[in-house]
């Protein structure tokens, strides 16, 4: 989804800092340096445009046709709905067994779902992540015995602090710091009350909007009835013959060994066997925490 895309400016900042630092050198030529900075900034801008731009509509349409032609039910997200949110909802409603996504937000929408990560990365083995409710207990974000509402609130505020797509974040706060803050204070409001220096950091930041992020995570914009209608429509389209979906799908492609694999109807007879055959390993909370600690900058 590209609705709220925030382009990273880190590299541009580094570029400008490097250019300014050059002014202290005896051989500094302002005209040459300015020209170089402009050229590099333009290249960086083009790179950001390429990496943040979505696929052309005709590519998405062709992919949609191929999936539907091979009897794979396919949904398009409704307005104001995130793709990973829709995946989580389908798993939550038990319409599908798993959600496949590398977006860490997926399991926060519905903490009871299983999310498969790294599924499309050739250099990594896929891993089943979740449910996030179990991860919250493993990370001690909430005390044992906490109800589902308390778990969801803690996960949402943790995600906002650690960095999500729906709000800015507090500078200098990474995943491990976010865990410690939620463990100690329980909510973003209590954190800001106890640490005025953090409140100062987000003052004037138009992207900092935890309430808006909470509304998204709490599925306030998702209409369950509309979702079920989409599911029924997708199921009907999946039952149509190839020629009824679109005649443009090449025979060579539709008859290939890859596309001849039909989507299995219903739940797999043995999920463990299926996951093992796909090379997907179970999630280990301790390894996850160790990886977070390795990513956290040491102060």
Structure notes:
The protein has 299 residues and is mainly alpha-helical. The chain has a domain at 83-218. Helix content is 53%, strand content 3%. The chain contains 16 helices and three strands. It has a three-stranded mixed beta sheet. Helix 5 (106-109) links the parallel strand 1 (99-100) and strand 2. Helix 7 (148-162) packs across helix 8, helix 8 packs across helix 9 and helix 9 (188-194) crosses helix 10. The protein is globular. The two termini are 34 Å apart.
Topology:
Layout: H1 10-21, H2 30-52, H3 57-69, H4 83-92, E1 99-100, H5 106-109, E2 115-117, E3 127-129, H6 132-138, H7 148-162, H8 175-185, H9 188-194, H10 196-202, H11 210-217, H12 224-238, H13 242-245, H14 251-254, H15 271-277, H16 285-295
Helix pairs in contact: 1-2, 6-7, 7-8, 8-9, 9-10
Strand content: under 5%
Q: Numbering strands along the chain, what is their spatial order in the largest sheet? A: 1-2-3
Shape: globular
* Helix/strand order: HHHHEHEEHHHHHHHHHHH
- How many beta-strand elements? 3
Structural class: mainly alpha
Fraction in helix:
40-55%
| End-to-end gap | 34 Å
Keywords: Endonuclease, Hydrolase, Magnesium, Metal-binding, Nuclease
Domain XPG-I: 81-165
Pfam families: XPG_I
Organism: Catenaria anguillulae PL171
């Amino acid at each position: 989804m590209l609705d709220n895309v925030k382009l990273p400016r880190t590299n541009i900042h580094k570029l400008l800092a490097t250019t300014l630092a050059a002014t202290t050198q005896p051989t500094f030529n302002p005209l040459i340096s300015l020209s170089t900075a402009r050229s590099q900034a333009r290249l960086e801008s083009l790179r950001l445009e390429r990496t943040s731009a979505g696929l052309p509509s005709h590519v998405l349409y062709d992919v949609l046709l191929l999936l539907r032609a091979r009897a794979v039910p396919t949904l398009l997200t409704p307005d104001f709905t995130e793709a990973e949110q829709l995946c989580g909802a389908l798993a939550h409603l038990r319409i599908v067994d798993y959600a496949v996504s590398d977006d860490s937000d997926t399991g926060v929408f519905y903490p009871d779902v299983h999310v498969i990560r790294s599924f499309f990365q050739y250099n990594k083995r896929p891993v089943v992540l979740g449910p996030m409710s179990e991860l919250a207990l493993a990370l001690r974000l909430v005390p044992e015995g906490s109800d589902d509402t308390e778990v969801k609130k803690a996960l949402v505020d943790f995600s906002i602090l650690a960095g999500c797509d729906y709000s800015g974040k507090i500078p200098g706060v990474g995943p491990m710091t976010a865990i410690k803050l939620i463990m100690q204070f329980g909510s973003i409001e209590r954190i800001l009350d106890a640490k005025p220096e953090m409140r100062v950091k987000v003052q004037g930041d138009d992207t900092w909007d935890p309430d808006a992020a909470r509304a998204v995570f709490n599925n306030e914009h998702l209409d369950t009835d509309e979702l079920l209608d989409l599911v029924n429509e997708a199921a009907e389209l999946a039952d149509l013959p190839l020629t009824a979906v679109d005649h443009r799908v090449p025979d060579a492609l539709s008859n290939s060994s890859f596309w001849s694999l039909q989507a299995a109807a219903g739940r797999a007879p043995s999920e463990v066997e299926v996951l093992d055959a796909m090379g997907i390993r179970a999630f280990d909370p301790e390894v996850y925490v160790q990886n977070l600690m390795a990513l956290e900058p040491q102060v």
